């Protein structure tokens, strides 16, 4: 699976959009971009995933560049409860069990 | 039911003890996973079960022994652990190849 690069930490003001970038320049055609987050002392939580089209769900939006070498997770109106470590993971999804290889992630601090 | 449960929440054990961690899900997922997470580090995959068969063992020491007695249950048997095995142990489940759902973890301390 391709490797990802994320900033170590970011701050965001409460109520503003949080935009979390991820670089995955070695991504291959059958690899998806997944985002998870981990709030302190809890298990990781699935947020969203995509292949090449932009995706939106009730939690977030995922914007993937046309060349698929980078993506951005957008939390449209960040709250204090969104403070967490956000992991961008690239993996295949071929119907078989797949590994999740977590990088160091981005620690997002939402401030009042 | 959309959650993965893990018991116990906390466990303290001596190096000569034998204990087990338990994970349960009722989402009909046929893939289940064990991860280990040390403090301030990302989770690391240990084992994957697919349709109740072990499909991935990430070169985990034999003092960790996984078991999948049925499609809803996953156990991790612990024996002769070392203090450096102290960590948060996370269980997850998924439809094979799809997003994984994690439990809250068991925080293990080896004394």
Q: How much strand of chain B?
A: over 45%
Instruction: State the shape of chain B.
Output: globular
Q: What is the assembly state of the chains in this entry?
A: heterodimer
Structural class of chain B, by secondary structure, is mainly beta
Secondary structure tally: strands of chain A = 9
Major beta-sheet overview of chain B? 7 strands, mixed
Structure, briefly:
The complex is a heterodimer of chains A (112) and B (111). Chain A is an all-beta fold.
Primary descriptors:
heterodimer; A: 112 residues; mainly beta; 4-stranded antiparallel β-sheet; 0% helix; B: 111 residues; 7-stranded mixed β-sheet
Q: Your description of this structure?
A:
The complex is a heterodimer of chains A (112) and B (111). Chain A has 112 residues and is mainly β. Chain A is 0% helix and 46% strand. Chain A is built from no helices and nine strands. In chain A, the strands form two sheets. Chain A has a five-stranded mixed β-sheet, with no helix packed on it. Chain A has a four-stranded antiparallel β-sheet with strand order 2-7-6-5, with no helix packed on it. In chain A, strand 3 and strand 4 form a beta hairpin. The mean pLDDT of chain A is 92. Chain B is mostly beta strands and 111 residues long. Helix content of chain B is 0%, strand content 58%. Chain B is built from no helices and eleven strands. Chain B has strands at 4-7, 10-13, 18-25, 31-37, 44-50, 53-57, 64-70, 73-79, 87-94, 101-102, 106-110. Chain B is globular and about 35 Å long. The model of chain B has no long low-confidence stretch (mean pLDDT 95). Chain A binds chain B through residues 34, 38, 41-46, 49, 85, 87, 92-105, and chain B through 4, 31, 33, 42-45, 48, 50, 55-56, 88, 90, 92, 94, 96-105.
């Amino acid at each position: 699976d391709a490797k990802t690069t994320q900033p170590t930490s970011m701050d965001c003001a409460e109520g503003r959009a949080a935009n979390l970038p991820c670089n995955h320049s070695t991504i291959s055609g059958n690899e998806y971009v997944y985002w998870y987050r981990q709030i302190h002392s809890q298990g990781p939580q699935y947020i969203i995933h995509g292949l090449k089209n932009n995706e939106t769900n009730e939690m977030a939006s995922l914007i993937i560049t046309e060349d698929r070498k980078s993506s951005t997770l957008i939390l449209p109106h960040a709250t204090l409860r969104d403070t967490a470590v956000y992991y961008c993971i690239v993996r295949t999804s071929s119907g078989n069990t797949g590994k999740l290889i977590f990088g160091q992630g981005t620690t997002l601090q939402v401030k009042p | 039911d959309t959650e993965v449960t893990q018991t116990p929440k906390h466990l303290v054990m001596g190096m000569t003890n034998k204990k087990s961690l338990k994970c349960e899900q009722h989402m009909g997922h046929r893939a289940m996973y064990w991860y280990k997470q040390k403090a301030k580090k990302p989770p690391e995959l240990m084992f994957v079960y697919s349709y109740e068969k072990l499909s991935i063992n990430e070169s985990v020491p034999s003092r960790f022994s996984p078991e999948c007695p049925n499609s809803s249950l996953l156990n991790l048997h612990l024996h002769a652990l070392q203090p450096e095995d102290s960590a948060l142990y996370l269980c997850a489940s998924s439809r094979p190849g799809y997003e994984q759902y994690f439990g809250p973890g068991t925080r293990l301390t080896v004394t």
